[in-house]
Write a structure and sequence with these properties.
By secondary structure, the protein is of the alpha/beta class. It has 2 domains: 2-155 and 333-357, Rossmann fold (3-Layer(aba) Sandwich), CATH 3.40.50.2000; 158-330, Glycogen Phosphorylase B (Rossmann fold), CATH 3.40.50.2000. It contains 15 helices and 14 strands. The chain has helices spanning 11-28, 76-87, 110-115, 118-128, 137-143, 158-161, 195-202, 218-222, 237-247, 259-262, 267-274, 285-290, 299-311, 313-330, 333-357, and strands at 2-7, 33-38, 41-46, 55-61, 67-71, 91-96, 131-134, 149-151, 174-181, 207-214, 229-231, 250-253, 278-281, 294-295. The strands form 3 sheets. It has a 6-stranded parallel beta sheet, with helices on both faces. α2 (76-87) packs parallel to α4 (118-128). The model has no long low-confidence stretch (mean pLDDT 94).
């Protein structure tokens, strides 16, 4: 079976939901040939019914694929491609790893995805696809209910999980770190309330807070006494994971519990844990399901957990090592390869049935 994966421009999603699954499936020798590329080869025509002569998709080249996977399709042209491919007898899978119609006001993608209706296009693509793959059970309820979808959880490549773990270091100053951009997490850091500053106060001289990404006004949001250390975002995902393990000792993953975040995957805590970083997180649906990391619901919990992890190095290392072992045992891309293959085979079978009955 030949599968063509059409990727998004967002490097994190491309890496975890396209490139690494493709690598894992190929290495598992599951009888599937996988090609990964940006976009589809199309032929555009001018719409004869449009006075302005707008270009429309007239033809799509499936490149010999039995299944085409569209990652985060959000344009009318991608919806047209989906329909044209199905008309050729090619199965189409839509891959989604976020609830694109639930972004809260204040999120930097809210205007495009909600107010301008781009998220609704993705929703329509999901409804018309032969199968939808998602990263969480809550996303399945939104996009793939009634047997139209399949959960394939996020996982970590073994090469990253086997890098020298953070807990092998003995730092004089423990770095508490967060990765992300405030613009895409406008309400999340605040979930720690005063807890982070309380922990920094209790461990003054032995701890520091760092943000890898775009911290923007994080100091004001958290009412910190000092600016966080700023670590430049690393675009390459292998280098990003390497940097987490080299710079962080404790990783925080605060999330406001809302519709959008309840659909988000367990990836941040998984990344921390894979690199041997002690993880402390909000009780989101996915973090709870993962069962890795220290749980913090109130500012007091953040203060207590972070403080203990700074002060008790043996406990911090013991917990981080146990969490990393869980990743190695259960959450590698080699563990999810068969799930990806099953999803693609299922999509092909669904399309074949529909074509036989003329659906």
């Amino acid at each position: 079976m030949n599968v063509l994966l059409c990727t998004t421009v967002f490097l994190g999603s491309l890496f975890h939901r396209m490139a690494e699954p493709a690598r894992a499936v190929e290495e598992a020798d599951l009888g599937i040939n996988v090609t990964v590329q940006r976009g589809l080869k199309t032929t555009m025509y001018r719409d004869p019914d449009d006075p302005a002569g707008a270009l429309v998709v007239g033809e799509v080249d499936a490149q010999g694929a039995d299944v085409v996977v569209m990652q985060l399709p959000k344009t009318r042209e991608m919806l047209d491609c989906l329909r044209l491919l199905q008309a050729q007898g090619v199965a189409v899978v839509v891959e989604l790893d976020d609830h694109l119609t639930a972004l809260p006001p204040g999120h930097q993608g809210h205007d495009v995805l909600i107010r301008k209706g781009v998220g609704k296009i993705a929703e329509t693509c999901a409804q018309e696809a032969d199968l939808v793959t998602v990263s969480t059970p809550n996303l399945l309820k939104e996009y793939g209910a009634g047997g139209r979808g399949m959960v394939v959880p996020n996982a970590i490549p073994r090469r990253l999980a086997e890098l020298p773990p953070a807990y092998e270091r003995e730092p004089d100053v423990v770095t508490i770190g967060w990765t992300g951009t405030v613009g895409t997490h406008p309400y999340d850091l605040q979930e720690m309330g005063s807890g982070l500053q309380q922990a920094l106060d209790r461990t003054r001289g032995r701890s520091q807070f760092a943000i890898m990404g775009q911290g923007e006004d994080a100091r004001e949001r958290l009412r910190l006494a000092e600016d966080p250390i700023q670590i430049s975002w690393v675009e390459d995902v292998d280098a990003y994971a390497t940097t987490i393990g080299e710079r962080f000792d404790i990783g925080v993953a605060p999330l406001r519990i809302d519709t959008f975040n309840n659909c988000k995957s367990w990836l941040k805590v998984l990344e921390y844990s894979a690199r041997g970083v002690f993880a402390i997180s909000s009780p989101s649906a996915e973090y709870e399901r993962l069962g890795i990391g220290y749980r913090a619901k109130r500012p007091r919990d953040w203060a207590v957990g972070i403080t203990r992890a700074v002060e008790d190095a043996d406990w911090r290392r013991e917990v981080a090592a146990a969490n990393r072992e869980q990743v190695l045992a259960h959450h590698l891309t080699e563990h999810t390869a068969e799930l990806w293959a099953t999803a693609w085979r299922r999509a092909r079978d669904i399309r074949s049935r529909k074509d036989r009955i003329g659906a």
